[in-house]
Amino acid sequence: MNENKITIQKIAELAGVNKATVSRVLNGSATISQKTKEKVERIIKEYNYTPNTIARGLAVNKTFTVGFCHDYKDKRAFANHFFYKMLQGIENVIYDNDYLFLMMSRHEREDGTSMFERVVKERRVDGVILPSSLYNEANYRLLKEHRMPFVVLGEREFGHSDVRWVDVDNRQAAQLLTERLYENGYRRIHLYTDQEAIARDKFIADRIDGYTRTMEKLGLPAFVATSVGELQARGTEAVICCTHEQLFELLKETADGLPLPDAELGTFDENPMFQYFKRTVHYVSIDLEKWANRRRIFCFPSSIKKKTFRTLSRFPHFWREHQILNKGQMK
Amino acid sequence: MNENKITIQKIAELAGVNKATVSRVLNGSATISQKTKEKVERIIKEYNYTPNTIARGLAVNKTFTVGFCHDYKDKRAFANHFFYKMLQGIENVIYDNDYLFLMMSRHEREDGTSMFERVVKERRVDGVILPSSLYNEANYRLLKEHRMPFVVLGEREFGHSDVRWVDVDNRQAAQLLTERLYENGYRRIHLYTDQEAIARDKFIADRIDGYTRTMEKLGLPAFVATSVGELQARGTEAVICCTHEQLFELLKETADGLPLPDAELGTFDENPMFQYFKRTVHYVSIDLEKWANRRRIFCFPSSIKKKTFRTLSRFPHFWREHQILNKGQMK
DNA sequence: GTGAAAGCGCTAACAG
DNA sequence: CTGTTAGCGCTTTCAC
């Protein structure tokens, strides 16, 4: 291939030292004389040499790569602004730590194995980030068996106390939203969600809980609807849409016109397009960039730099332990 | 680390053969007796062995990974639905070919080098996909110097005939949009764009060209505006927004109300949120999924499976040569 | 058809 | 402080 590819061996010869010595200056070993260090560094610069991370990884059993797994079938994720903001934040932290970012999808291959599984088994990454929707017992076992550090995006409990996750405080977000609607004069504030999602997704349950408690505190009856009909029958003044799917459903004109023409709409997470919508959307959202910059949201402290990525599995649940709350931002 | 990690050596011992033999059955060498082949395959299955792609890559000088570079500072890209649809399509094709997908950003590191540069120099990927906004003379030289195959997303010429790119037919898209607005009864159809973008981005120039020619054909005066004031002064009936940025500008209420309250709005590419907007948005868009499934849009023919990724650089300009055109889809 | 050995580019003991 | 040696897990001549 590239015949004049420049390797550590060549640099060693050029500098008149052993390649082990070059390796030492590369890795900042203390036991190096200033003289040889400078000589080697000069040659490295002169020949524009960059050590091969893959070979290095093979030697030290690391890849300097973080994997991010997503469900390619989940169109919701790909339509979700929150998802991308997160992705951006993750990328920034990863790059700042001289790591690379590998996208994996829950793509099943012909032989029945998934790309994710193979990546884990082959140790093509040093750690994995995966959304709670992809965190299940099988993946837990896979990751544990291969001693692969991972962190789950979104709270999810399976009785494993050794699982690290990050999440926002959905209860508080729901509280903020409910309170704000109340302050705006609405009283028949109802929540709209998908029946199946209640049991499946913890963030839904938390949002419902936050809403219900707040309504109680306000001395108002809480009502969780799972269909538009229920909302209509209840004379809804303001409706909290648990996900954007519910929101879009209410925004869509049907043969009978808008489902709830007179109700105010509230939801979680921002979408920059909201401002152009026909109907006003009230929302709570977290300033992701702010948190990402503080390197907390993704659980990567700056100290991992150059260190083994295994530390990943020792990170605390920042979001849970510190009770960092949604900064409500209402429109 | 994982003390009982299972390697090709172990499999060889277990099967009572040499690791070279195991390697041969792994790679489907023909010169293998059916008997040993079956024996080895049995052991592999029994021990759930997966060969280490990284080590394999070191031996054959490949990584089985495709890199995708994006500009992390370009908020537009990250807010762009088209961008993500593309990403999804690329991922699918890559996974189908048993390749991995590495996200790179134009992230500058402290030492002044970019992550992209390092990835290329270290050959941590076998090929690179990069948007035309990141394709410049410096990157061209970098990629060529390191014999790194690449394909540019979006047409861009720099006098290098050996550069492969894929793009949609922006001229035809503009034509479709203009014609449709004409059919709807509008006559003072004007185009709105960013002054600087005209020279910088070929797709803008192409859209302008398509619009201008169509207007000529229709016997109408074409008018390219670069400010809202110009549009207002011209009594615009319908305005073609060259990018969504222009569109959003016209959608945003100012102190004086909407900029062009009575004009119809047209643009390129879909955004699924359009349907909820206050104002109707006319748009042309390409059915990306359709083309992605045909594996044409991203220039990865199915034949690259298991073959060196260098073929990438020999792919034809499908989109140019076949004149595959924007299927106009108007709302 | 299969084994032995060298090598991909790097790190990590172990000497000296 | 620096060189030697032995790997990391796999492929690939070259013999036999």
Automatic annotation (TrEMBL), chains A, B:
Q: Which SMART domains match?
A: HTH_LACI (SM00354)
Question: Which domain of life does this protein belong to?
Answer: Bacteria
The residue ranges of the HTH cro/C1-type domain are: 2-54
The residue ranges of the HTH lacI-type domain are 6-60
Which keywords does this chain's UniProt record carry? Answer: DNA-binding, Transcription, Transcription regulation
Q: What name does this protein carry?
A: Transcriptional regulator
What is the species of this protein? Paenibacillus cisolokensis
Organism phylogeny: Bacteria, Bacillati, Bacillota, Bacilli, Bacillales
